[in-house]
Amino acid sequence: MQVKRMREDYGKLDKVEMSIWECCELLNDVVDDSDPDLDEPQIEHLLQTAEAIRKDYPDEDWLHLTGLIHDLGKVLLHPSFGGLPQWAVVGDTFPLGCAFDESIVHHKYFEYNSDSKNSTYCTKNGIYSEGCGLDNVMISWGHDNYMYLVAKENGTTLPPAALFIIRYHSFYPLHKSGAYKHLMNEDDVENLKWLKIFNKYDLYSKSKVRIDVEKVKPYYLTLIEKVSTTLVRKLGSTVQRFEWSHANAGLEIVVIRELHQRASQFFFAKRIGAPYDMYEVRHKLESNYGGNFSRIEHRTIQNSPFCFFANLTTYAHLQVIYRSATLMDLKRDDQTSAFAYIQIMLRARLHPKTTA
């Protein structure tokens, strides 16, 4: 039930919106405690894996990109994506609903798992049929599952083998020990060949040699543009700027990225005090863009007070990260945290969840 709940929650893809490369940079803040081979930030491992594959398979550009993005699901460890604990994100994965194979790491602890006492789940096939295909098998939750959902739901053009690698690269009982092959179908068998090739680079490309990020970045940006664009939703490239300064409050530069759907406007206003200040700001916004603007929240970021405005008329189409001139002066990590907070706060305020 926990795995289903996680898939339903994170499968909504409503946490944060950013490009693939922005996500790679976000992983500078993430260290996988389960990895004994490397204590460097995860972006180093991503680039080392991708570059090693690129060297040996120069014509398989889809495999290069797979090497770059295969671990991006580890952003679940980052506060912007919910800050899940390490045990819920990293480590080996395994099937649920059938017998736990002895090749699963720390197998002895399954005696404390209630599934091990379920007579249906304790058989070789469990709730599955032989040859049913791994796509029909429930796998324990982790960063593999999340990144697979992100790629699939965003309509990536990566080939099936790439999605198989992303989804099962932590499924070591399968590709290392040969367990659970009886559940595979013909497509799984073919894709497993690529996963085994990939696994050599995932495990053995790690080193202390630093990657020249700026040197390789243009190549991977080209691949990202070719087969996959954003981590959560596709953002357009058109940028509009609206500048206006209230005598007392001041409205910061606003950046709006246009989407396939009509985009909402969201604004940062600073040092708003008296009610007439609020009225002036709101009136200016509505006269420029139309709709019904409202102050959603007051928040202090880096000891600087801000008021957040949103167009309630068009909010249903809000799928974009917004920036202001003042926020752009912050360090990158602080910007990311601020953007994430704003989006989560707006969704909670304007679309509150109901509980049954």
The spatial strand order of the largest sheet comes to 1-2-6
Number of domains: 2
SSE sequence, one letter per element: HHHHHHHHHEEEHEEEHH
CATH architecture name of the largest domain: Orthogonal Bundle
Low-confidence stretches: 229-268, 315-331, 344-356
What is the end-to-end distance? 17 Å
Level-1 CATH class name of the largest domain: Mainly Alpha
Strand percentage: 5-15%
- Count of DSSP H/I helices: 12
* Rg, nearest Å: 23 Å
Mean pLDDT: 72
**CATH fold naming of the largest domain:** Hypothetical protein af1432
Count all strands and give the number: 6
Secondary structure: helix percent: 25-40%
Structural class: alpha+beta
What global shape is seen? globular
Largest sheet: 3 strands, antiparallel
Cofactor: Fe cation
Main location: cytoplasm
GO molecular function: inositol oxygenase activity; iron ion binding
EC number: 1.13.99.1
Explained architecture:
Helix content is 38%, strand content 10%. The two termini are 17 Å apart. The chain has helices at residues 2-10, 20-26, 42-56, 61-69, 143-153, 160-168, 172-175, 186-204, 213-227, 275-289, 325-328, 332-350; strands at 239-244, 251-257, 266-270, 293-301, 304-311, 323-324. The strands form 2 sheets. A 3-stranded antiparallel β-sheet has the order 1-2-6. The protein has a 3-stranded antiparallel β-sheet with strand order 3-5-4, with helices on both faces. Residues 229-268, 315-331 and 344-356 have low confidence and may be disordered. The chain is globular. It folds into 2 domains: 2-227, Hypothetical protein af1432 (Orthogonal Bundle); 239-350, no CATH class. The chain contains 12 helices and 6 strands. The protein has 356 residues and is α+β, with helices and mostly antiparallel strands. This is Inositol oxygenase. It catalyses: myo-inositol + O2 = D-glucuronate + H2O + H(+). Its EC number is 1.13.99.1. Belongs to the myo-inositol oxygenase family.
